[in-house]
Amino acid sequence: MDYSLLDFLTLLGAVGMFLYGMKVMSEGLQKIAGDRMRSILSTMTRNRFAGVLTGILITALIQSSSASTVMVVSFVNAGLMTLAESMAVIMGANIGTTATAWIISIFGFKVNIYALAVPIIGIAVPMLFMQKNKWKSTGEFLIGFSVLFLGLQYISSSVPDLQSDPEIFAFLQSYTQKGFLSVLIFIMAGLLITMVIQSSAATFAIVMIMCSKGWIPFSMGCAIVLGSNIGTTITPILASLSGNVAAKKAALGHLLFNVFGTIWTVAVFYPFVDLNVWITEALGQGNPTQLMDYASQLQAQHPEIYQSIIDGGSTNGIPAAIQFVKLQFAVSFGLSIFHTMFNMVNLTVMIWFTKTYVRICNFLIKSKSKEETEFQLQYISGGMLSASELNITQAEREIALYGERVNRMWNMVHDLIHMKPNTEEFNHLYSRIEKYEEISDRMEIEIANYLNRVSGGRLSYEGKLRISALLNIVTEIESIADSCYNIAKTIIRKEEAHISFTDSIYTNIDTMSQYVNEALANMLYLLGNIEEVHEPDLIKNFNKEREINNYRNILRSQNIESINNKEYEYQAGIFYMDIICEAEKLGDYVINVVEGIEHQMRRRAGEQPIVVHE
Questions:
Q1: Residues of the chain with pLDDT under 50
Q2: Which among 575, 558, 591 has a CA at the least distance from the CA of 486?
Q3: 87, 110, 137, 442: which could form a disulfide with 32 (CB 3.0–4.6 Å)?
Q4: CA 574 – CA 572 distance, rounded (Å)
């Protein structure tokens, strides 16, 4: 066998083309249906059966179980889905991924998609320059679809012809004749191949080619498919490493589901393979186990016909060649049947043990204590969890949490105002406020960096607008934290100057604090429901902003009168007004956050923003 380094690189390039085509196709579909997928995943998981249907639908739609499972991990990471709900969706995703196998199987042999691939690209490229984003995304999908099958064709033509080298072929054959050990060897091979290329669909394509050329028996092809089901869990596992504990549990649940499913299948491997062979024959597609012997006979008796078929040539009505092609389709059809049956039986058995999986995951991965996680990002991290459109949801959840932490900082500042100075509790609380200020700065940077990385992905125009609005919101929330810290520093300066406030000053500060509390509470509600913002909730904040401004103006006028009437010292009035004005400024930052939420809502609805405040 004359197989050069160039041939090997060509094979690697063919696999890369296949994977890139799948990536582009998946991303195009995600951009077409990004918001709808987000809505489906967040609403159709009321029970385990709805979750399974959701997993099937999403995975069949985006043609990648790895992408949909990573998506589920990211939703668990973002707190949009519980671990139990994620397990049901993951189980459904394993069935949904069989759609990819069926597409490869049917189009790979029944339709000469290779001949249509370039014309499809010719149709798709002009779509990329159209104004409507859906047309652009559809063009990306068609290009990805075409590149995927071009890659499949190049893989088929680039793999070395093992049968032309008796020694290598005999070496491969020796591993298929070790009984049950062979099954384990080929399961491990499928696992390792899928872990390396991180695509069970690509592994399925390689197995289909190996079986259809008669290099390995049908049963060993099934074993590789089994191994690929475990290997495909590596992608969500890698994605979860940078996620929170819940994300790690979801990835572990995916691994356990596939491992346990493979264990029971291995226990009844040969009877289960025979069942799938019978189903394939019953559906009129022939016996997939006959191809290997037929290929050996055809190569021995008619080597020119065999080579022509392997090279993708025409059968020209030759009966032997036609039979060979029929058996090739029987193998691809049988592998798809095996893949589907395995996942359906696995789901039927395992769905009743969802709570058991959750308990196992909770036992194996312990949640960190609140103290350990209090100052860590919970919903986003240094790593990306795939699917740029859906990463935005994680950022929104993290921003809502950011707002809650800054709100806690404001409550600490209010407590500091009334706390007896120069005490251990006073100093400890001020230290906590300082710490929160540092954390606030760090959170702003990390969230902004995350959003910038997401914006560098393949996003729709609406997605880019959302990121722009979220970046503005993050900046304003950090400004709220700055105002809180400024008030705390004002209190420290007041104590250092040995200035005392009167009861009336404390009463007015408390009233202003109540207004600010109400504004912050409504802001947090909007951040927590950013996907479903209603106009009355926005107007509440705009009205509260007016109240804060008006009250600041009233207190400013009263302050001058009180100083003139010698109710308190001039310097006390200075510190008093510094606190009031900083609280009013904080209210301005709150309304800026609300404006960012409002503009995001209006852009989604295609409406003009409300302008009702000064």
A1: 369-375, 382-385, 605, 608-614
A2: 575
A3: 137
A4: 5
